[in-house]
Amino acid sequence: MLGPEHEFSLVNEELKALPIVDKVIRDFRGRIVNFVELSHFTFGKELQMHVLEIKPNAPFRSPDIFEETMQDAVLTLTDFLERKYKAQLLGTGMHPLLMLKETAVWPHRHKQIYQAYSKVFNLKRHGWLNIQSFQLNLPYSDEKTAILMHNLLGEICAYLPAISASSPIFEGKIGDLVDNRLRFYMQNQKEVPSIVGDVIPEYVSSLKQYKREIIERYSQDLANVSVDKCILYRDWVNSRGVIFRFDRKALEIRVMDEQECVKSDVALSCFIRALIRGMLNEEPHFLPHEILVKDLHAVIAEGLDARVMHPKGQTARQVCGHFCTVAWKNATEEEKKYIPIIEKRTRHGSLSDIIKKKVQKKAQKTDFKESIVSVYSSLVKSLIRNQPYL
Known about the structure:
alpha+beta; globular; Creatine Kinase, Chain A, domain 2; 14 helices; eight-stranded antiparallel beta sheet
């Protein structure tokens, strides 16, 4: 089963961010609610007023149905946005031009959650107002499997951003790192560091230990700074790269940037599901947590070219190549239609790498902002056409 959650910016033809999610929901539903549930998918608010979340009404068994359903959601919303607002959806991990003053925090129902956060954290930062992730929920059947999956996904997540990064640009400038979304994500709750931890989740041996050493710890730290009770002892407050969602009986992966189209999101999902299937069939050999943390930092900075300490490769590209081999060997026939997209990313560069190269090339002949608008306008079309930007 695959449970995706997608985040897209609302933009106009000039790529300006439009903080109008509440208006879109009101015009679609007739009143402002958090989410609008349609026959096969649900869409609604995120923390940022210019970001729309789209998710299915139930997890997918089939990646083909995943692609068909979520692409239908994209086209349904795109048609409505175009007719009503002359607006479009834009993927990727960060809006490339947004200045923080151009958006705001959701002010309607459930605003008490964001108000609770704002008492401790400065929400006027990119780590809150300008990040878009593709989140994937993978179900577990029993505690033993859940713990093993959690620990294995921690290793995968140290290297996954090398192929999932799509945030090279923010505030109209090329960032210093390959994955700038994760850079800001790691800093957004620095006032209470136990919430994010090292992003790479700590190894655990039981759900009881997880709840005691992770959930209870950050909840007590939050209570110590007088945070409202509405965010205490909540599993979704945990901001590590992999977390347990007990209400769904699933593990949620949070380290991936949103991609440019649904097909690319499906490809990442198939890759991870096939890879974890293969790893579950082998005797696990866990790398020390501190090595995974160091490798993650290297990957966030340098992507596929990062030097790492994994036994299967000296670079993130080599490790991801090994992961692709394992995934292919353990993939279903349906999954094998999508994994070549990840293989191409591994060989030729992440979406972040490609965007940066395209913008720099265009900037040799035109204004830098115009080059950004040109490339990201192509990404808007990629989303509509459901064509990977390779």
